[in-house]
Every structure is written in structure tokens, then in C-alpha cells.
TrEMBL record:
UniProt GO MF annotations: ATPase activator activity; protein-folding chaperone binding; zinc ion binding
Ranges annotated as spanning the membrane: none
Species per Swiss-Prot/TrEMBL record: Noctiluca scintillans (Sea sparkle)
Keyword Zinc: yes
Protein name: MYND-type domain-containing protein
Biased composition (Basic and acidic residues): 64-78
Cellular component annotations (GO), alphabetically ordered: cytosol
InterPro entries given in the database record: Aha1, AHSA1-like_N, Znf_MYND
Alphabetical UniProt keywords: Metal-binding, Zinc, Zinc-finger
Disordered: annotated segments: 64-84
Family the entry assigns: Belongs to the AHA1 family.
UniProt KW NADP keyword: no
């Protein structure tokens, strides 16, 4: 288990997971050596770091004799170093070193204290923090289990996400002595089965007797006795009124050819429809839930000729219907067209005389089209 501890060191340290430098690293709470830039990197690297993560061993304390020996060696080295220097400088150095604890009087005093020291009473060891694994100056215990110890409220809060899985309130002494662990397998209720009772008829419900096989013979249904199912708007087979779709574009192509021969008089002469070409678009009749929808959106081109009965000369032109749709017809929108003719007078004549005649004929076709579904 790793715990995040923010380090106060300002020297950049390399992250053990992403190798980025971090000024305030997070250190492993066990070994105190692995450093990370964030908690995410610490969690990702834990699966590899936990194999080598070990608590740092505390160095043995140096005894007073070893300290005195080290001080004597340091004093001897200092005397040899200052033998050929200025006496005033040597005196200043010795005075400074004496203040730092390297004086012989200090050594004797420490040795004397060691010899005259009495055996110290058994002092209980300080509790270890369950989060940062450091000795607790002021011990805080878990208020539920009374076992987990922490050095501060911060460590207690950080460790709670792991400790709460095993934290349980201790049992009283009387209950603890009679405590038995619960079995993982639930026990069934013990029931006594009586075999001497009467079985009765219920036991024979499984007895099976084969029925007599009778060959199926269809019976003829008279026309008068047959049930007639009327389909509203749809085909005869669609009695339930489910989705039915019928393509009506061929009907429109055939019906628009009926415009051929349509003639109207105008100031520019007699305008006569000669042909209907380029019929494109979609036209469908839908039957959904016993209701019909008449959908069409087509465009086509009407060719016409213009001339007077007393003259053999005639001109030609075209009226291109851009959109004939069920939505525009229902709203009463004017028929959108593009007119092309050999002269401006023929174009104005087609706009004022031929287009209204086409609108009237197309309205009749729409009425006839809507009657097809009934």
C-alpha cells in the first residue's frame, strides 16, 4: 500500500513513472525513495514498484565511546593540519571547533556521563502512524476499532479509504469469549419429512394416456357464411391496417400525357400543348393504421406551340413546372414555373393564359389521384 506525502523539497526530482521533473514530488510512504509528479503516476507505477518496495532500515545509534573516538580523531587531524599555520589563526580555528563540540572537555564529560548513567526504565515505544509509518508525537486512534493509530488528522483522513474496509467495532469481553465466526454457506431450515402419510391422488397427476388420433379433414366454407373483412383504403389482404406503400409515379407519367392537346386563346395567338416530357420525382400512397396519405413531389416540362389560325407560321416554347407537391397544393401556393419562348409576346401569353389552364387541369388530376386510395 502506498500513501502520498507531499515533499517540501524545491529541487526538481524525476518522476518514477513518466520521467518528468517535478519540484514538489509525492514520495512512497513505505520506502521513502520513489518519487512521483502526481497521484495518478504513483498509482500506475505501484504494480511494478511494490515488488521492490521495502521499509527503510533505521541506522543504529552511535554509542558515546564511538563519538568520543571520532572526536579524538578529528582533533588529532586538526592539530596536524594547524601545526605549520599562524598561531592566531590556529587559536581561532580551535575556538570555533570547540564551540561545535570537538573539545576534549566535551569528550570527557560525555564519557563520564556514560559511566555514571543509570539504567533507564522501560519506556514504551511510540506508536507508528498507519499512514506515513512515522513515530507519533501525539497519537490519534480510530474512534471505531481503537486499533489504528495516526500522527495527525491529515494522515487519518488519507488512510480512511483503505482502513474503512477492515474497520470494525470491537466486541465486548463477554461476547468476544463466546464469539464464533459466521459460516459463509447459509444453513437451510431443518424440516422433518414424514414418509408414513397418505399419498393421495395428487401423485398420479403425471399419469398420461395417449389420445385417439383423428385425421384432419378440412371443411368447406360457403360464400354466405364466410366472414368479410373490409380493409379501409388498403389492399384486400391488409385487413389489420398495417404499413402499405404503393408507387404512383407511373400513374402520374401516364396521366400528365393527358395534357397533350390542351389549347387556349391569347393575344399572341392560340397556345396548344404538344407534349409532356422529363417527368421526375416521387409519388406514393401510404396506408398506415387504417388511414391514407397521398404523397407526391414531381417536376416535368410542357412543350407548346403558338400561332394564328389564319397563318401557317407558328412558334414553339416550353413551360417547366419546377414543383408539383401535395404540400404546395394543400397550401394553395402558386405553381412555380419557368417559361421559355421565341419572343417576349409568346412568353407573356403563356404566362397569362397557358399557366392558369395548366393549374386547373393539374388540380383535377390531384383530385383524381386522391380518389385512387379509396
Amino acid at each position: 500500500m502506498e500513501v502520498d506525502i507531499a515533499a517540501a523539497n524545491t529541487v526538481p526530482v524525476q518522476c518514477g513513472n513518466c520521467s518528468d521533473s517535478c519540484v514538489k514530488p509525492l514520495r512512497c510512504g513505505v520506502c521513502k525513495t520513489a518519487s512521483y509528479c502526481c497521484k495518478k503516476c504513483q498509482q500506475e507505477d505501484w504494480q511494478y514498484h511494490k515488488r521492490n518496495c521495502k521499509a527503510a532500515k533505521s541506522e543504529p545509534e552511535t554509542s558515546l565511546e564511538e563519538k568520543a573516538k571520532q572526536a579524538a580523531d578529528a582533533k588529532q587531524a586538526m592539530d596536524e593540519e594547524l601545526a605549520n599555520t599562524d598561531p592566531k589563526v590556529a587559536a581561532q580555528v580551535k575556538d570555533m571547533m570547540a564551540k561545535m563540540g570537538y573539545d576534549t572537555g566535551v569528550e570527557k564529560k560525555d564519557a563520564q556521563e556514560e559511566t555514571n548513567a543509570k539504567p533507564a526504565p522501560n519506556v514504551p515505544k511510540a506508536d507508528m502512524c498507519k499512514n506515513c509509518m512515522e513515530p507519533c508525537a501525539t497519537t490519534l486512534r480510530c474512534s471505531v476499532c481503537k486499533v489504528a493509530t495516526y500522527c495527525s488528522r491529515k494522515c487519518q483522513g488519507e488512510d480512511w479509504q483503505f482502513h474503512k474496509r477492515n474497520c470494525k467495532k470491537p466486541l465486548p469481553k463477554a461476547e468476544a469469549s463466546n464469539y464464533k465466526p459466521e459460516s459463509y454457506r447459509p444453513k437451510a431450515d431443518e424440516k422433518v419429512v414424514e414418509d408414513d402419510g397418505e399419498v393421495g391422488d395428487w401423485y398420479r397427476h403425471r399419469e398420461w394416456r395417449p389420445e385417439t388420433k383423428v385425421e384432419f379433414k378440412p371443411s368447406k366454407v360457403d360464400a354466405e357464411g364466410a366472414t368479410v373483412i373490409k380493409s379501409e383504403g388498403g389492399s384486400a389482404w391488409n385487413a389489420a391496417g398495417t404499413w402499405e406503400e404503393k408507387d404512383m409515379l407511373p400513374w402520374w407519367k401516364n396521366r400528365l400525357l393527358g395534357l397533350t392537346g390542351l389549347a387556349v386563346d391569347s393575344f399572341a395567338g392560340k397556345l396548344t400543348v404538344t407534349n409532356v416530357t422529363d417527368v421526375n420525382g416521387e409519388a406514393q400512397i401510404l396506408h398506415v393504421r387504417k388511414s391514407s396519405k397521398y404523397i407526391f413531389d414531381i417536376n416535368f416540362c410542357v412543350e407548346f406551340s403558338c400561332g394564328f389560325a389564319t397563318s401557317s407560321r407558328s412558334t414553339s416554347g416550353k413551360v417547366k413546372v419546377l414543383e408539383l407537391a401535395n404540400v404546395t397544393v394543400k397550401d394553395g401556393t402558386k405553381l412555380p414555373v419557368e417559361i421559355s419562348a421565341e419572343s417576349d409576346s409568346d412568353k407573356r401569353a403563356a404566362e397569362t393564359a397557358l399557366v392558369p389552364a395548366l393549374e386547373a387541369s393539374l388540380q383535377e388530376y390531384v383530385t383524381e389521384y386522391q380518389a385512387k386510395g379509396n
